[in-house]
Amino acid sequence: MSEGMKQRLPFVLLAVFTVVVQGLSLMEFVPWPVALLIGAGWAAVIGVVARGISRRPVLSAWVEDGLVALGCVTMALFAFGGAVGLLMLGTALDSSSVTGETMVTMFLPSIPIAIAANVPTELVIIPVLLVLGWRPGTRRLLFVAAAALYFVHRIWTYLVFAPDRLDFAAAEQSTAVLSLAEKNQFAAALHVDDPRWIMNLLIFAVLLGSAFFSRVREVVHLTSSDRPPAIFARIQGKRERSAAFKLHRFID
After folding, report:
1. What share of the chain is helix, strand, coil (3-state, %, to 5)?
2. What is the pLDDT of residues 196-219, one digit of tens each?
3. Quick one: 13 exposed, middle or buried, by C-beta within 10 A (0-12, 13-18, 19+)?
4. How many Cβ atoms from other residues are within 10 Å of residue 235's Cβ?
5. Taking a C-beta distance cutoff of 8 angstroms, is the pair 43, 13 a contact?
6. Mean pLDDT of the 21-49 span
7. What's the N-to-C CA distance of the chain in angstroms?
8. What is the pLDDT of residue 52?
9. Is the confidence at residue 131, as pLDDT, over 80?
10. How far apart, in Å, are the Cα atoms of 5 and each of 2, 47, 143, 145?
11. Which of 62, 89, 179, 180 suits 38 as a labelling partner, its CA being 20 to 30 A distant?
12. By C-alpha distance, which of 116, 119, 122 is closest to 19?
């Protein structure tokens, strides 16, 4: 692979990730050509911003480590919060007196939480990390792995999971006790056996692992390693001037 292609590859990955994920996200609201166009526009914007940041090593290091930390937070919310939520909903369905109203009421608060965590992850965190972290080493491999897992996760969500849950959220809130058939319908709509929380946990683990390869620490180390010679030179100069001054006073 040529050097030019290597430099363009992270931007290609950013574009593919953003266009596909945002296209699937927006197709519920606008025609698919418009959705893809919006996704392409955002990919261009975030690519330009990421490129500008990458040209400033210190700023790039802080932004990169900051996005890793934020990504760990969002994926921890998905992994552990999602698993607990599924357990609660599954347990509620085992109750003999649960109603449709209760199930809807339990589920609805998870929608804004999921949106709040998803939006920064798919719009900023993953795309920008692909660019800022594109240098040889373990961290680049971890970023690519996290991006690939999250890419599959979002496609799976938008094609299979989101429509059922959105339909469930809009379902009529009934105060009647659910029958066995209705419970089965709710369980299917809620995907209470959904294994995506395991993928969320994997992405969290990958991002957490990447945090141990801090870019800020690397930049600080490189910067500090360049300073000692100059510092030592100044100290040596001060010592020489002090010795010359003492010698001059002794002669006088």
Report:
1. 85, 0, 15
2. 888 889 999 999 999 999 999 888
3. buried
4. 11
5. no
6. 92
7. 72
8. 95
9. yes
10. 5, 16, 19, 20
11. 62
12. 122
List, in order, residues 6 or more apart from 116 with CB less than 8 Å away. none
Element (H, E) at 71: helix 57-76
Q: What is the mean pLDDT of residues 35-54?
A: 95
The one-character DSSP state at 2 is: -
Give kind and range of the element (H or E) at residue 205. Answer: helix 196-210
**pLDDT (0 to 100) of residue 102:** 83
Compute and round to an integer the Cα radius of gyration of the chain: 27
Spatial CB neighbours of 27, under 8 Å, sequence gap ≥ 6: 35, 158
- Cα separation, 187 vs 89, whole angstroms: 8
Using the predicted structure, report yes or no on whether residue 224 has a pLDDT greater than 70.
Answer: no
Cα–Cα distance, 117 to 150 (Å, whole number): 13
Helices 3-26 and 32-54, packing angle to 10 deg: 140
Tell me which of 115-124, 187-196, 227-236 is least confident: 227-236
Contact 32, 23 (CB under 8 A): yes
Q: How far is CA 146 from the centre of its chain?
A: 8
Question: What predicted TM-score, i.e. pTM, was given to this entire model?
Answer: 0.79
Q: What are the angstrom distances between the C-alpha of 12 and each of 61, 93, 131, 204?
A: 22, 45, 10, 24
Residue 178 is classified by DSSP as P
